[in-house]
Each structure stands twice: as structure tokens, then as C-alpha cells.
Amino acid sequence: MLYDPTEHRIRSFVTRAGRLSTGQARALEEFGPQFLVAYKKEMLDYAAAFGRQAPTILEIGFGMGDTTAHIARQMPEKDFIGVEVHTPGVGSLLKQIGEQGITNLRLIQHDAFEVLNNMIPDASLAGVHIFFPDPWHKARHNKRRLIQAPFVQLLCQKLAAGGYIHLATDWEDYAVQMLEVLGAEPQLANTAEGYAPQPAYRPLTKFENRGLKLGHGVWDLVFTKK
Predict the structure, then answer these.
(1) Confidence (pTM)
(2) CA–CA gap between residue 163 and residue 29 (Å, rounded)
(3) So what's the architecture of 23-225 in CATH?
(4) Binding residues
(5) Distance of CA 195 to CAs 4, 177, 180, Å?
(6) Binding-site residues for S-adenosyl-L-methionine, please?
(7) Splitting the chain (226 residues) into consecutive groups of 10 residues, what average pLDDT does each group show?
(8) Where are the domains of the chain?
């Protein structure tokens, strides 16, 4: 279902019934109780969830979780909350958490809009990562794109002063839209003249590498909250 009448908004994702591998199913059972945070309409206590106080970064739509696991390993001094709706992706990242001994990562399997509104305290995030969100490339579907002005305003509400938003896309017209939307938000400042160099912490995915070899572009945007 694309439109949620209870929220009076258009969803930016389609819930797909994916097939769980044996390893993903085992990871959900074995590591879910420790690393999967249940969605609740109450603010999340980061210190209680992670057992420490640390800068907290939210990733929205982590897919199969390879990039998320990589970044969490590279930044052990920070805590990460990954939000994803699709069960195979959650199982895949839980499997990596278990295999790689990652302790600074918690997952929430739910709609990111509701997680932001109901679980993430205002002015609490050090950063937000959104990598390769669904481009909804047909013009008539552009309204379903996640990066729209009201959503960016909500992200700003949840960011601490000096916190950042890092977006990446391989669709040029979506990159243009992202730059326009973030550039028009008065609470944000661009860290670059236009698009940003790819930050060292974001690894190239296999899909991205393949696209770059074919001459496809990738655009990163990094804005900070004033």
C-alpha cells in the first residue's frame, strides 16, 4: 500500500514480501532480541538502548546492511540506529552484526517517518544517513520520493546543532531535487559548493562500482544544521 490514510501521506516505499535465507532467519532469532528495538510510540532512550552515551547517527533504509555494518565498524566511538522495513534486509544486517561482533548498532523494523516522529527525541542526532533511496524515476511517481521539504524539516527537528545530513543517489534528477530541497531549508548549510566529495566513511557498493564502470554518476550531499 503506497498511501497511508491514517497518516494522510504518500508512502515512499512498497512493502515487498521477500524470501528469508536460512542465515537471515537464524540471525533474526539469535541476534534480534539484543539488537532489534521494537517500534513503540515513546521516545527511545539511547543510553539505555546502547548501554552508554555516544553521538548517535540514524540511517534510513539500509537495504541489506553492508554499508551500515562497514560504517559502524569504522566508527566504534559512535552509535548507529538503522531503520528498514524489509525483513530480509534486517536479517542480513543482524547476521553481519553477529559475524563481525558489532556492538554499536541497533535496528528498528518500521516506517522511518513514524520512527522519527514517535521514537527519536528532538535535537538528539549527530547525523542522518540516507543512501540510494528509491528514486521513483517515473515523473508521475516523483511525489513518492522520500526527500521532500516537510521530511527534511522533520530531520532538522531531530538533529542537534552541528549535526549533518548525508544523502547519496545514482539518479541525477533526484540529486538535483535533493540539492534544491536541502538548499532551500534555512536551518541547513551545505558543506560543499553543490555536491560533496564522497566521504571516506561511505564505501562503494558492488552495485555502485558496476554503475561507475558503465559511466553512471553518483552524487553525495552533506549538509549541516546551523
Answers:
(1) 0.89
(2) 34
(3) 3-Layer(aba) Sandwich (3.40)
(4) 59, 84, 111, 134, 138, 170, 205-208
(5) 33, 12, 11
(6) 59, 84, 111, 134
(7) 43 61 94 97 98 98 96 98 96 97 98 97 98 78 84 98 96 95 98 97 85 84 98
(8) 23-225
